[in-house]
Amino acid sequence: MDWTYLILAGAFEVVAVIGMNEVSKHRNLRSFTTFLGGMLLSFGFLSLAMQALPMGTSYAVWTGIGTIGGTLVGMVFYKESNDWKRLLFISMTLIAVIGLKLIA
Question: At what angle do helices 2-25 and 55-77 cross, to 10 degrees?
Answer without folding.
Answer: 40
